[in-house]
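ping. complex inputs:
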Amino acid sequence: MPHRYLPHTPDDLRRMLAAVHASDIDALFEAIPEDLRRRAHLDLPDGMGEHALKAHLQDLASAVRVPEPEGMFLGGGAYNHFQPGVVDFVISRSEFYTSYTPYQPEVSQGTLQAIFEYQTLICQLTGMEVSNASLYDGASGLAEALLLARRVKKRPKMLLARSIHPDYRAVARTYLSGSDAEIVEVPFTKAGTIDRAALEKALDTGVAAVAVQSPNVFGCVEDLRAIGEMAHQAGALLVAACTEPISYGVLRDPGTLGADVALGDGQSLGLPPSYGGPWFGFFATRQAFVRQLPGRLVGQSHDANGRRGYVLTLATREQHIRREKATSNICTNQSLCALAGAAFLATLGKTGFAELARQNLAKAEYAKRVIRDEAGLAFPFSAPTFNEFVVEVKDDPERVLGRLREEGLLGGIPLGPWYPELERAILVCVTEMNPKSAIDRLARGLKA
Amino acid sequence: MEYPDDLKYTKEHEWARMSDGRITVGITDYAQDALGEVVFLELPEVDTEVSKEDTFGVIESVKAANDLFAPVSGRVAEVNSTVVDSPEMVNTDPYGEGWLIAVEPSDLAELDELMTAKEYAEYVRSQKE
Amino acid sequence: MNVKPGATQPLEPLLFEKGSPGRVGWSLPPADVPDVDPDAIFGKGAARGPVEGLPELSEVDVVRHYTRLSRLNYGVDVGMYPLGSCTMKYNPKLNEWAARIPAFARSHPLQPPEISQGLLALMHALERILCEVSGMARVTLQPAAGAQGELAGMLIVRAHHKAHGNPRHKVLVPDTAHGTNPASCALCDYEVVTIKSGPTGLLEPAAVAAHMDEDVAALMLTNPNTCGLFETHIREIADIVHAKGGLVYYDGANLNALMGVAKPGHMGVDVMHFNLHKTFSTPHGGGGPGSGPVGVVEPLARYLPTPIVNLRDGQYVLDDVPESIGKMKSFHGHVGMHIRAYAYALALGGKGLAQSSRYAVLNANYVLERLRGAYHVPYAGRVMHECIVTDKRQNDHGVKTLDIAKRLMDYGYHPPTVYFPLVVPGALMIEPTESESLETLDAFVDAMLAIAREAEEDPELVTGAPHTTPVARLDEVEAARKPILRWTPA
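pong. complex structure:
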């Protein structure tokens, strides 16, 4: 019976089988051993019509009880931001989303120009000289940055601030587990930022990179300039990850502060959390390391008539040419997600992006004030924060958060599972999506 | 294809020219033609020690990247910085302005192990078949 | 596309070349808390003013910019996209809706499992579907794409051997493999040993046996291979690898030929990855996001990336995997793609998935049969879901594979994969997929046949192609010699 995704009619099939001189479709599979074919039956239900399938998916969705965005205070690597309608419009253009990697530039100028613009926007945000076309996520971006440092510096040791998001560190560890690189974690201080005395001690001539995150997993802003000077003094690279790229709208860019690689998750730039993805990882570095960049790159060129156009370039770094000597095994980028990021930045623009960052900062500062002054709770860390911060509660965090959930608030992330020494701590994120009234309710709930 | 008689050749398509105690190294006409338009060269720094048959750099076209192999061992005495900035010179003048590095050889006898122009032409012919 | 051929003005100015200072495309919600002074909070020098260079456009400007750019692109929704080994099948529209259901899209990856049951149920069910299709015992959905799946899979291989006392040093990879295979091996510190395929395009058991020893961690292979041929000796080859304690890694790039036809789990495969963006119809997005789940046999499940979804006491839970290779990705992988793949699998059901693979194979054979007279076919016999022809005959007229590819654009098609696999000189690798109707296939073949005629009668028409695209052939040499990788103010 014909299926809506499969156009062949019985008559088509007859004609095609005759053309290929086959009695039936099974005859086309004679290269496959008979016993493999005999056991290949799929024990799965019959296909569903669009109607029934839609209802089924809606049923599943109704078993996801996520509160309204007003009551969402979770950050920790995924952020609750407004998605301008333009963004979803752009990535819903099927000329974009049903195309593939722009191998054939003559029919891919849309994707290619959009990526070229994306690369420019990321350079502007990070203050770096060159950006790739995006990676899977910030976590694998950190791993790729360390591998880049390994190649550039030919030194084995990587110093990672323990204040980097645990998933970033875990992915870096997985990626480097097959190599001779050694990962050493550097503790954090009462400020909630990297312990510079411990860093000083750990910095020797075997260190290829010092990696920190700013804002870090506690929302705290690291002193990139000072850390960069220490790293460079020891001949190591500064890898500056970032949990929340909206912070670039109010915080000095890592390029200016001395970063050699700037990276992070782009989710905040117009992509919904979607329970973890897909988003994109942005990755930018200095011109000097362009030949060491992982992933795709788009460059400007001209066509045979002299018209400006764009192509994939410097492909000899990549796996399809360099194979085992490639700078990374990554094949594609997160093109559509990067496109969303670019459309987001284009829509907000110079003023909107700065205002958005400023408003996030103001909301978080207000939240800190009411939590401190009215709920009487303390903050374990003293460093300045952007839009998330750690608060210490007086009861078991799970219990506190459970109570908040009953009021329709997802109040934060308990930090105990990540940092056992912070068993009473909750990571709270406040964005432009949280009205003052919800922040006030949160403060009351955290106290109770 | 042109393979000058005064040069020695490797199986990896480099040439070597002895003059004034130094050995100048480049890639052959055949190699530049096979590679297509050269877009990038990665060459060692002066004073780097290279060993015969080890890689000393990389040469790239748009769709290919090939290692460069040292025809003899020794110290890199000079690097052609002009060709790094204008890699197309490898295509236009592979035996002249498109030279890559000059080596102070540590063992001149290694030169004798390389192919003559005639042997190399024969080798290229056999490779094509 | 309203473009005058030969004109040299840019098709569409860059975002940065338009707009006007002060123009905005978005309005912020009103501030209901007091404003703050960033200098006071972060200290002077640590705060920043507006980002220099960001565009200043209205909403209309942005919409028109991207709409115009989109019209310079070719996609599956525009027409047939027979890019070999990429499985450019139709991307159902319902799936796009499904991934955007607010409860799914708004879900935070760290929200408690108690409120995420619908998503966890979906992920668990998708895992069961992938297990059923592949014959593997467990599947992780975490890897972001095929290449990351390969890395995860090879790290699992390494973990297995390490647990048995020796991680081993070598991996066998056929010369027809995708470039990601050796690149992923290199990340695991495995030395790649390339195995030559035989004259029929197949991997020969003797060639594997000759290289197989107790220092070989695994054989990585794609089946059907990148020549579009089923590795008939797969079981014998797997036995050879297993006899020396090695594992078999299966690159699922070409799984679209085999759903309901043969299961990797029955072929002796130990670890494999899926490409949901190929086999399970999630859109390719101009190069991503993909999704690359990894399946393993039961004894290897203990090494899967952490966490994994389990069903316990009627509740879906996220369990840590104690001997896990670690995490491949933040959180749970590309859940938005899992939703689409799940919707696709349910729309087709068991019978429909099997029918899809059967039609994919029929379509490839039909195209090959019709092209046979006009193009050189490197391998005799039937193919699976993709076929290869070459430019050997057209070479006599100075026409190369790249020219044929470019000329196809003038006929309204995206070109096939070109110059891959590397073992076939001048390869055009055509994967029609099951989505194409007989009329579309015929029209595509007619275009190919017309190009073959043009190559003989008017070769310059072909070597000068494309003639009708928004831009003519681009100078890739210029781009690589003096890379311009971003816009800078004049």
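Residues 208 and 368 of chain C are 30 Å apart (CA to CA).
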